[in-house]
């Protein structure tokens, strides 16, 4: 009987504790409902995307010219932007034809907003370089894009700050998009961003970008970018280095936009004995090609927007983007790229009409592999007339 009483006493004590907890939770719930000072976050989801088709007629393709050019599918993409309180999610999934890499993620990151001006990002995030995500106007971008200095994304973490005058971005990138998980595998060329490929891989990269804004009627943006990181070589299992410095300026005055940029970079791979260190392979869209290990680029772009707002036609923007690439080796031919075009906005349809010209530019030349290194030896310009139709939703 004594043993039963002790057990019963313990049970009573446990019941009292449980009841007390329920009461505390209940009162706290009542108190919270009566004095609700913390707003409940709302989940906001925004989905979008695009379906794009492309027509092109290239001067170095005689059979294509006889056919009057080719017209086909370019890309289907899905975008998602999600917010929940201070948390955000942003992603862009792309679906190209198998010849251009098939399906891959352009970007995708988690974001935590420390406040209205400061943010943290984690995932496949922008590799901050240049004035903003784009430093060009055309569908082709400018030449820095083809060497990984425009609209580039890598795996890492960043801190971003922006107010009315200053924009500061600091990023650490462990590596480029890692599509293979082997111990010492080459990266896949099926990707959106241009990165080192073949025997070399990007590792442990730091980027710092600083922009300063001024002006009211005429807006100016002045800034600089710094990049430094490692180059892991698969054969030697040793790490080289790569570095880049960029200076940029943009001006917006009524309908006019002017932008210019200077970039100098130096890649120092530690390749195997007997392999040249004067160039590295880079790849995107399932097409690898060689690039000069050391060079400088000078870009300038001018655009003029004509508002129309009649019927479906919203506006037409005229532009010209030009880049000159000066390679460090004197016996290598320079690379030049110029795009004269117009962006026609018939919402939700956007049409890029471009006349792109290239001298030793891999996408505007029959000499794809060595255009950004030795050149083709002819100094010849090649041209491509291109129309891109994009339905955005």
Rounded mean pLDDT score: 91
- Give the strand line-up of the largest sheet: 1-2-3-4-5-6-7-9-10-11-12-15-16-17-18-19
Number of helices in the DSSP assignment: 2
How much of the polypeptide forms β-strand, as a percent range? over 45%
Q: What order do the helices and strands follow?
A: HEHEEEEEEEEEEEEEEEEEE
- Low-pLDDT runs: 1-34
Give the biggest beta sheet: 16 strands, antiparallel, barrel
The Rg value, from CA coordinates, equals 27 Å
What structural class do the secondary elements suggest? mainly beta
Detail the topology: elements first, then pairings.
Elements: H1 2-34, E1 43-58, H2 62-67, E2 70-84, E3 87-96, E4 103-113, E5 118-126, E6 153-162, E7 166-175, E8 195-196, E9 200-214, E10 218-233, E11 239-253, E12 256-268, E13 279-284, E14 287-292, E15 294-310, E16 313-327, E17 335-346, E18 349-359, E19 382-392
Describe this structure in words.
It contains two helices and 19 strands. The protein is mainly β. The chain has helices spanning 2-34, 62-67; strands at 43-58, 70-84, 87-96, 103-113, 118-126, 153-162, 166-175, 195-196, 200-214, 218-233, 239-253, 256-268, 279-284, 287-292, 294-310, 313-327, 335-346, 349-359, 382-392. The strands form two sheets. A 16-stranded antiparallel beta barrel has the order 1-2-3-4-5-6-7-9-10-11-12-15-16-17-18-19. It has a three-stranded antiparallel beta sheet with strand order 8-13-14, with no helix packed on it.
């Amino acid at each position: 009987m004594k043993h039963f009483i002790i057990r019963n006493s313990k049970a009573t004590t446990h019941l009292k504790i449980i009841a007390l907890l329920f009461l505390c939770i209940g009162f706290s719930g009542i108190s919270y409902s009566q004095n609700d000072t913390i707003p409940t976050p709302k989940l906001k989801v925004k989905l979008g995307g695009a379906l794009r088709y492309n027509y092109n007629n290239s001067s170095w393709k005689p059979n294509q010219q006889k056919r009057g050019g080719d017209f086909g599918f370019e890309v289907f993409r899905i975008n998602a932007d999600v917010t929940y309180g201070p948390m955000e999610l942003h992603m862009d999934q792309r679906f190209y034809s198998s010849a251009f890499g098939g399906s891959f993620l352009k970007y995708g990151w988690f974001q935590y907003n420390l406040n209205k001006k400061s943010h943290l990002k984690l995932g496949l995030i922008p590799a901050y370089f240049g004035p903003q995500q784009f430093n060009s106007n055309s569908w082709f971008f400018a030449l820095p894009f083809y060497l990984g200095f425009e609209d580039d994304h890598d795996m890492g973490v960043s801190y971003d700050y922006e107010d009315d005058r200053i924009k500061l971005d600091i990023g650490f990138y462990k590596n480029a998009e890692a599509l293979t998980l082997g111990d010492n595998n080459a990266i896949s060329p099926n990707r959106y961003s241009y990165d080192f490929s073949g025997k070399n891989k990007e590792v442990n990269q730091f980027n710092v970008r600083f922009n300063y804004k001024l002006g009211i009627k005429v807006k100016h943006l002045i800034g600089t970018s710094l990049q430094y990181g490692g180059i892991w070589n698969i054969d030697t299992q040793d790490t080289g280095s790569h570095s880049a410095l960029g200076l940029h300026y943009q001006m917006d005055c009524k309908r006019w936009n002017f932008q210019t940029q200077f970039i100098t970079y130096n890649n120092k791979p530690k390749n195997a004995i007997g392999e040249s260190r004067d160039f590295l392979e880079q790849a995107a869209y399932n097409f690898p090609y060689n690039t000069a290990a050391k060079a400088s680029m000078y870009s300038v772009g001018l655009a003029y927007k004509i508002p129309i707002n009649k019927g479906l036609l919203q506006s037409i923007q005229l532009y010209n983007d030009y880049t000159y690439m000066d390679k460090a080796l004197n016996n290598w031919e320079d690379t030049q790229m110029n795009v004269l075009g117009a962006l026609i906005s018939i919402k939700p349809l956007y049409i890029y009409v471009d006349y792109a010209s290239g001298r030793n530019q891999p996408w505007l030349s029959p000499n794809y592999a060595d255009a950004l290194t030795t050149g083709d030896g002819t100094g010849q310009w090649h041209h491509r007339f291109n129309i891109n139709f994009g339905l955005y939703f």
